[in-house]
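Exercise: predict the fold of this chain.
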Amino acid sequence: MKQFNMLCRAALLGMAVFAAPLALAADKIWIDVRSAEEFQAGHLKDAVNIPHTEIASRIQEVTQDKNAEIELYCRSGRRSGLAEAELKKLGFTKVHNAGAYETLKAAAEKSGQPE
């Protein structure tokens, strides 16, 4: 049931394209939780790559601030949902599953923001 809820949430987040230009603010930490190969094929500007299976062991490379605003994305929102849950277990309070890379990329292009 928990995975079903995460998938439903990811689908709803994907529909929130209108909010993406605001979400792509530079003061947030953007983490692409896809594989290194997927990241190399394309990613959002200023995003860092930490595969979702490594998020717990590598988050300290990016921030030690448990109140930092962290936006996570992947191909569909599933892996970013798993990473979100893991970071929340570690005490990070402002973690958000931003959903799918292609949706975020399209929203950035539509608003004229660099991807």
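Check your answer against the key: Helices lie at 2-15, 20-23, 36-41, 55-58, 78-89, 101-111.
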